[in-house]
Amino acid sequence: MRVFVTGASGWIGSAVVDDLMTAGHEVVGLARSETSAQSLASKGAVVLRGDLDDLDSLRRGATDADAVVHMANKHDWGNPAESDRAERTAVETLAEALVGTDRPFVVAAAISGLVEGRAAVESDPSPAVGPDSNRGGSENLALDYVGQGVHTIISRFAPSVHGTGDWGFVNFLVCAARKQGVSGYIGDGSTTWSAVHRSDAARLIRLGLEKAPAGTRLHVTAEEAITTKAIAEAIGRYLGIPVVSIDPEDAGAHFGFVGGFFARTMTASSEITRAALSWAPTGPTLVEDIESGAYATA
Questions:
Q1: DSSP H stretches of helix in the chain
Q2: According to the model, what pLDDT value does residue 76 have?
Q3: 204-244 pLDDT tens trace
Q4: CA 71, CA 63: separation in Å to the nearest integer?
Q5: What distance in Å separates the CA atoms of residue 23 and residue 3, rounded to the nearest whole number?
Q6: In terms of residue numbers, what domain contains 12?
Q7: Do the Cβ atoms of 247 and 189 come closer than 8 Å?
Q8: pLDDT tens digits for 19-47?
Q9: How far apart are CA 173 and CA 164, in angstroms?
Q10: Which parts of the sequence belong to the NAD-dependent epimerase/dehydratase domain (predicted)?
């Protein structure tokens, strides 16, 4: 298949591009910079210049493709409303271009905020509805297009998609530990995160694109629940610094913006996903990655 990928040079998107090409698919990658364009071209991917605000490029990429994988997000932590607006507009633009084609449309989403008090499961609907909700309600918006002949597949990602070069949440936790001289967890450290290695996540996206029925929600999680204390302890062991509890009121000052996420339980089961697509994660665990130096350049 000819697959159009947004976020094709990003942390997860670049791994998805590699996996798709290894499996024999042709990739057209959206690139907003010359550096990104050169990186994609060096892999043998077709480059389409543009970004999330370039709606004409999004339409062209989707119209000319056999399938679309939407991985891009602005991740503007200082202006989340702008990230939400751009996400909703991009999903709507891509979906409209696919109406009536029954072509696969894989949309990245998050497991955070789905449920409280238990691990989320694939049948849990997202509570985010409408443009003013989390990620602009893009998950539900994309699923609304199933009835219009769009083969939507939702991929809900763990809060940590880890591996060498990860610049996500764990990267910021390591940075905070280096800055503060201690590796912290919040309160008693009993809150939990799900995690998945980048290579396993990329393979699951490809399997979903190839096999998942329209309307499927996939959970891109390998480890269902790692305590935040265990994450802090792994960072402490790697850096050789003390591990301490941080009062919830001091979390913002200690961790920066990531403290708000570190204080939340964000977990999901992937039992249904594994069974449906015969997906078995094989990459290292989050603790193994931390201890082996995957965040050495954080």
A1: 11-22, 34-43, 55-63, 80-98, 138-144, 169-180, 198-211, 228-239, 251-255, 258-262, 271-277, 286-291
A2: 83
A3: 999 999 999 999 999 999 999 999 999 999 999 999 999 99
A4: 17
A5: 12
A6: 2-159+196-221
A7: no
A8: 999 999 999 999 999 999 999 999 999 99
A9: 15
A10: 3-83
